[in-house]
Amino acid sequence: MYDKALLKDFYKTMVSIRYFEETIDEMSLKGEIPGFVHLYIGEEAIATAVCQNLTHKDYIQSTHRGHGHTIAKGAQLDRMMAELFGKKTGYCKGKGGSMHIADFSVGMLGANGVVGGGYTLAVGGALAEQMKGTDNIAVVFFGDGASNRGTFHEALNMAAVWKLPVIFVCENNEWASTTPYLTQTSVKDIADRAVGYGIPGVIVDGNDVFEVYEAAKTAVERARRGEGPTLLEAKTYRIKGHFVGDPEMYRTKEEVKERFDSNDPIKRFEDKVLSSGDMTESDLEEIREEIKFEIEKAIDFAKNSPFPGVEELYTDLYV
Amino acid sequence: MRKITFSQATLEAMQEEMRRDENVFILGEDIARQGGIFGQFKGLPQEFGFDRVRDTPISETAIIGAAIGAALAGMRPVADMHFADFMGVCMDEIFNQMAKIRYMFGGQATVPMVIRAPDGLVRSAAAQHSQSIEAWFLHIPGIKVVAPSNAYDAKGLLKAAIRDDNPIIYFENKDLFRQEGEVPEDEEILVPIGKAKVAKEGKDVTIVSYSIMMQNAFEAADELAKEGINAEIIDLRTISPIDKETILNSVAKTKRLLIAHEAVKIGGVGAEIAAIVAEEGLDYLDAPIVRVGAKYTPVPFSPTLEEAYRPKTEEIVKGIKEML
Prior knowledge:
The complex is a heterodimer. Chain A is an alpha/beta fold. Helix content of chain A is 43%, strand content 10%. Chain A has ten helices and seven strands. In chain A, the strands form two sheets. A five-stranded parallel β-sheet of chain A has the order 1-2-3-7-6, with helices on both faces. Chain A has a two-stranded antiparallel sheet with strand order 4-5. The longest helix of chain A is centred in the first third of the chain and has 26 residues, at 4-29. The termini of chain A are far apart. Chain B has two domains: 3-182, Rossmann fold (3-Layer(aba) Sandwich), CATH 3.40.50.970; 197-323, Rossmann fold, CATH 3.40.50. Chains A and B meet through helix 5 and helix 6 of A and helix 3, helix 4 and helix 5 of B. Chain B: It comes from Natronincola peptidivorans.
């Protein structure tokens, strides 16, 4: 049903995100990466599948947990790694870091250190494309916790009333920082909130890359046709703590292990393509080796890059 | 020379810039169908359509966020805030997003947008519709802030702001909208951002002011002239970045400084200017610096209290006489 090139793309992107995040986890714990880091492990299928439907002319707005979105949108691992290390060769010359990484050349318009900060910016990107008469669209990723920000509601209303080409992708990972989302959120399904704005609300299994891909495709096509926004909720689970170093007093290791072992999106993909015969173990192994090599190169690049000089402090403040 | 109102001057700026560049558009509450609460947008949708002159939901956060997003996507939005006071509603978008995007993304982005912010005391509008809050934004690197004092500058600064590639907050005093000033016809008016203007030359004292308080500065100068005191008046025009050079050059000449603004005195723009002169021009001074600003209270409703709150010409005159 899917051609092999697409399957390879799915796997390559998901594995890139996983290995990148595992590396960052290790480096951050060792103190080699300054600042706060939030990992996307266990949620890889969502960014991968959504961005597979986008071109570099489409925009995404990301979150504090944004490495996966950045990779899936097409950013290079070496310049990402350098940015996380605070190096001059990073995408933002070391001025942004993990929470403020962006690659405008591929339409990745920024992670955001403010939870719920991206919605209205995505609405603006979509408005610009609508006014210019293109069929480019904007996507904003956000979590279950962020759906309780007022920005969510203002953005959905504005996007709906102007029929803007924007897709709201909720990654419901069940944890709003350190709080179980159901203790702080009025509905079990965030997608239900679409009703209040008269737009489609769709729920998918966020750990099934195929299901996310199909739902995102429908939403993207609808947006490109000028039929307006969609709220897409992908159910997933946050495998790592809120941030690297989070003692995770709010849940047990057993719970996390059980959820990961039973529902790892990469494992599920492997099982599916191997049992269908669409890919072989050696196909998968080849991709894994290629990504491992890329990550090694990215680490070398980041480590061997210079820090920005103090003369950079005042640059980029104004045009 | 032709005289038009401040409001008309801003309208001409919008018309000229929207004709010149199709990426310029304006969004805000009550602007298209109503024409703006001060009539400052009258006729714009008839010429440019309801897409480029866009009524919005009452969603200040989404208005500013959408303007930022559109600016990142190559447009040049002008976002009308209705009242400057409502910037409190969308402060995150202004100071965590708009102001920082270019810097934190290492110069990848430009955010060419203008926030129009009608401010100041007018007809007992009271605590939530009367404030002058420009000092807040002086404290935030990454934003430029301008505040015209007359119709000519209103036109020239708005046109320059729309053409500037940085995010700019344009404070327009509500009581100035109806006032007339000389604005030549058939002439491209662009007032440089970042440059203060010596509005009146003098030798005995420097008055630094901006926006509507410039009128009090002139009144005070006339008053002082009767007693042989010749005041120099600087119209700041741009609040951020502050044109230190013009201020310091003037103080070097006059040896005395008074700063006057309608905003609350404590923590105001005057405090920063006083600090700059204390740090970089203390030796010039023959007298302590004096600041004139509003009282440290929310803006009261009752006309008697509003009048008591308002900074006045007499305070400028008195402050200067005490220095001499």
